[in-house]
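Why should sequence recovery work at all? Because a backbone constrains its sequence more than one might expect. Tight turns favour small or flexible residues, buried strands favour hydrophobic ones, and helices have their own preferences. The token representation captures these environments compactly. In the example below, the structure is given first.
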């Protein structure tokens, strides 16, 4: 009887709901107010939401008046342009979420006399027509991206001024119009992926997004340098192109990012782990706490007057006491390079390092990385006359991967065991699982019994490769105080 009662709540056709009656099968869902049903439908995937119209006459107008959730899918294969044009025509309610990816780019016009492409700042008329046909006053999320990494089709100016409530925006494989007029007072997250833009257009965009908190810049072109000034921005992810895109030989890659004035910037996440020639300059970011992953993909890193070239300190004039979390990729293990970073960030609390010791032993890679000096990992301390504040007072967590437990990497790890005086946790990302005998041998080689911090805990874990997807998620997910802790390892085996 219980099962029958449950079924009677959901199986009615909704045409003539019977609230009571002997043997009646009441459809309690259809009896809900239109506003509640509309909210439910708007949270469904686009295809499933549209199918609710077939449930009954009662449901017919619900989808058409509910807040629109139009998502063609990440692969762009969910709907053709004809289909989502018909969806926009049939739907009469406000738009809440519009995600259109893999749009077919418009044909390119070319001036053969001046040997350059001709751009139309009026933009793509298809998108302009779709957006102007909608009530966008409640639009929360907008994603527009073309196929083929095209970067040439111009978005219409209406994209940037018809959705005053927009909070999340992602634009990909397109061009931003010049003389851009922007009105996005509530935009919080912005992603620009393979976009052609100028620095003036970029400045105009940021200036009219007073609530912007996170910004992801991926492989954009059109300006050699982008300058960031924002009173609200808290997080920046930056990935410069590591190779020329086909057909873009005459267009500058965005290889340089300059943080001119970002008083609320909390995290700066360079996304060039091992390739590219990015240049990053931080002029003013007084609240910067999270930095990384730094790698040889960053040709020059300027932090005030301090300069690192390919991970090597050229000048250590400026120290940044606000930085608490640092991630380093591809450092060797080169203890000298790491110590220079610790001097630059004397109040560092968490240090994540991806080791690549075998690359230094492989002659095929000898030209990829700076020549490794004679390792000085055996030393017990950098200099007793010049103690490192970070090691003495602040460093609480060290995480290392990829760890084989051999040779110089053991010496490298031992340095932190013997010298990090307030260390609370040290984690090792293993290539594979080992037996108890191997772990006991590591205990001896690392001299854990002689550790500088008697309260330190040591764990050997299975490591996971950190992907671009992880880094991009870190840019926009501001809920995690330490964005590297969740993606650095995958499971663990305690020692």
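From this structural description, the recovered sequence reads:
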């Amino acid at each position: 009887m219980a099962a029958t009662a449950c079924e009677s709540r959901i199986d009615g056709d909704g045409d003539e709901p019977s609230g009571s009656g002997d043997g009646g099968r009441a459809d309690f869902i259809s009896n809900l107010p239109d506003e509640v049903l509309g909210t439910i439908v708007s949270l469904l995937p686009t295809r499933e939401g549209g199918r609710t119209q077939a449930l009954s006459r009662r449901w017919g107008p619900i989808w058409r008046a509910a807040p629109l959730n139009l998502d063609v899918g990440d692969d762009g294969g969910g709907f053709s342009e004809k289909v989502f044009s018909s969806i926009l025509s049939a739907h009469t309610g406000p738009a809440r979420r519009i995600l259109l990816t893999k749009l077919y780019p418009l044909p390119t016009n070319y001036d053969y006399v001046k040997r350059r492409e001709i751009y139309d700042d009026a933009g793509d008329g298809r998108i302009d027509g779709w957006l102007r046909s909608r009530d966008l006053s409640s639009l929360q999320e907008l994603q527009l991206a073309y196929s083929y990494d095209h970067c040439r089709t111009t978005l219409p100016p209406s994209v940037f001024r018809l959705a005053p409530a927009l909070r999340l925006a992602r634009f990909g494989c397109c061009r931003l119009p010049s003389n851009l007029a922007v009105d996005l007072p509530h935009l919080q997250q912005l992603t620009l992926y393979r976009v052609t833009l100028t620095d003036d257009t970029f400045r105009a965009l940021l200036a009219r997004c007073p609530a912007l908190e996170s910004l992801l810049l991926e492989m954009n072109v059109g300006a050699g340098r982008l300058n960031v000034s924002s009173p609200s921005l808290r997080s920046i992810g930056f990935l410069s192109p590591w190779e020329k895109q086909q057909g873009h030989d005459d267009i500058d890659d965005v290889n340089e990012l300059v943080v001119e004035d970002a008083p609320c910037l909390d995290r700066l996440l360079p996304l060039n782990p091992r390739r590219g020639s990015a240049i990053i300059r931080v002029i003013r970011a007084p609240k910067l706490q999270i930095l990384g992953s730094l790698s040889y993909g960053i040709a020059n890193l300027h932090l005030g007057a301090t300069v690192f070239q390919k991970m090597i300190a050229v000048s250590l004039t400026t120290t940044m006491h606000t930085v608490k979390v640092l991630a380093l990729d591809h450092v060797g293990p080169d203890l000298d390079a790491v110590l220079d970073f610790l001097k630059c960030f004397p109040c560092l609390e968490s240090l994540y390092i991806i080791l690549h010791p075998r690359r230094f032993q492989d002659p095929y890679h000898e030209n990829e990385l700076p020549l490794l000096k004679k390792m000085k990992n055996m030393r017990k301390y950098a200099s007793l006359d010049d103690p490192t504040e970070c090691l003495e007072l602040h460093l609480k967590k060290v995480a290392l991967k990829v760890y084989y437990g051999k040779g110089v990497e053991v010496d490298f790890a031992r340095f932190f065991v013997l010298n990090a005086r307030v260390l609370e946790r040290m984690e090792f990302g293993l290539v594979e699982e080992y037996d108890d005998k191997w772990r006991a041998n590591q205990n001896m080689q690392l001299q854990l019994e002689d550790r500088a911090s008697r309260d330190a805990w040591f764990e050997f874990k299975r490591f996971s490769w950190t992907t671009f997807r992880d880094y991009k998620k870190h840019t926009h997910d501001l809920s995690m105080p330490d964005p590297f802790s969740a993606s650095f390892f995958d499971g663990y085996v305690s020692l």
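A few observations help interpret the result. The CA atoms of residues 334 and 373 lie 8 Å apart.
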